[in-house]
Amino acid sequence: MPRPPRCATFLFMAVGITTHVVAGKLDSATYIAFESDRGGNRDIYVMDADGDDPVAMTNHLGADFQPDWAPDGAKIVFASDRDGQFRGHVQLYVVDVPGGDVERITDDMKTEVNPRWAPDGRSIAFLTAWWAGAEPRREIQLLDWRTRERRVLLRDDALDGDGISWSPDGRMIAFGSWRERGNQEIYLLDVAGGGVRRLTNHPAFDLGPAFSPDGRRILFVSLRDGGIATIHVSDIRRWAPVALPALGWQPAWSPSGDRFLFSHWDLAKLDTDIHVADANGRRHRNLTDRFGADSHTDWLDPAYTRAVSPAGRAAITWGSLKSPAR
Q1: What's this model's pTM, rounded to 2 decimal places?
Q2: CATH of 23-320, one of 1.10.1200.120, 2.120.10.30, 3.90.1150.10, 3.40.190.10
Q3: Residue 260, Cβ density class (10 Å: 0-12 exposed, 13-18 middle, ≥19 buried)
Q4: Contact present, 50 and 71 (Cβ < 8 Å)
Q5: What region does 301 belong to: left with phi over 0, alpha with psi -120 to 50, or beta?
Q6: Calpha distance 275→298 (Å, rounded)
Q7: What is the pLDDT of residues 273-295, one digit of tens each?
Q8: How far apart are CA 269 and CA 49, in angstroms?
Q9: Terminus-to-terminus CA distance in the chain, angstroms?
Q10: Can you tell me whether residue 120 is helix, strand or coil?
């Protein structure tokens, strides 16, 4: 079996799509945001948690990718190379749900990727990369949502591009790095104090961490099983990774923690699909069994949404969106 492609870089993806308008509601059902090139370009989509009714949220010739729901479900942050004024440098944007209006939230000549809302919705953590002469520079930064001020959480020129994950209490960020012996491992960053602790220690690459909703477990991808990208899980307090029967990458927990999503390489179609499995890695189902590359998911359940401001749960209405994608 061939190895699925790895995503350990800061620049990825391709280009955009077409959209129209439809009405509906986002109330009691659960929804998944994901990136797809099914419309000809790479754009942000939302679908029901069972894979039905995919809807395009963005429509641009540039590449839109790596979506992440705001805690209140009212916005999705994503990365894109859509603005030519930045000479191909990827910037961060948000799209309103349901309105579909897009706003750029970073503005520089660096590459900004893997945005992740803080659990309280007040800030967004992301990876930034640039060149200082011939030397690469990489950081985890924090963007204040209200003031748009930025601060550096971690300088690590060996950061990989496989994503970061907040702990549910907002105190830690899990990330991947090549910082020790040039091997890709997973670490925990203390957001307040800046301390770093290594979680994995294996000769094979470990990447793509994802905190569970209760903060007790982390899903991650490892190539330790014969070089094949396999989802693993471990309790954080007693670190002992267990391989799950799920081949793929980019794991993302359901808000209830009883299932997870992951991207899976389809050998027959030579592209990626989004699969869902129980928390133990069993009872797989392909949610996007069609031609086209679908990946990078984030799951929203209105029962678990958190209001950002003012206090109280935000009312989320689907309203006027886009037409269901083909």
Answers
A1: 0.86
A2: 2.120.10.30
A3: buried
A4: no
A5: beta
A6: 12
A7: 999 999 999 999 999 998 889 99
A8: 23
A9: 30
A10: coil
